[in-house]
Every structure is written in structure tokens, then in C-alpha cells.
Write a structure and sequence with these properties.
Blueprint lengths: L4 H7 L1 H14 L7 H42 L1
Helix pairs in contact: 1-2
Length: 76
Amino acid sequence: MNITIQNLYNSDYQLWLESTINQLRRGDFQAVDWPNLLEELADLGKSERRVLESLLTRLLEHLLKLTYWQSQRDYN
């Protein structure tokens, strides 16, 4: 079965990832699926930013709740 690297990316992500890592380790840069690799790296950066934004939002929510709780405790 002759599977192109593009088909591998679309059909078996884990195998594509392992193949890409092995190609990079061997220095076989001609065989690397650059468009999809670059897209994955860009998406990884976006994902990291979303996680950070979510954590910061949660932290802010908790700080606001704590401030409110303390003000109510002092009031009562």
C-alpha cells in the first residue's frame, strides 16, 4: 500500500507524527511534510495561549470571589 505523507497525516495522525520525528532525527528534511508540521506548530502555540488565557480568567474569578467574600465577612 503506497500511502503518501499527506494521506498519512489525514488518516493516522500518530503514525504521521512518529514518521515526522524520525525523519527530522535522521536529517531527512526532503521527506518531511512541512506544511502540516508548520500548521501543527502554529496550532500548538494557539493552544498554549488559550490554556493560559483560561487559567488567568479562572484566577481572576477566584480573586474576585475572595475579595467579595472578605468584604461580606467584614461587613457582617
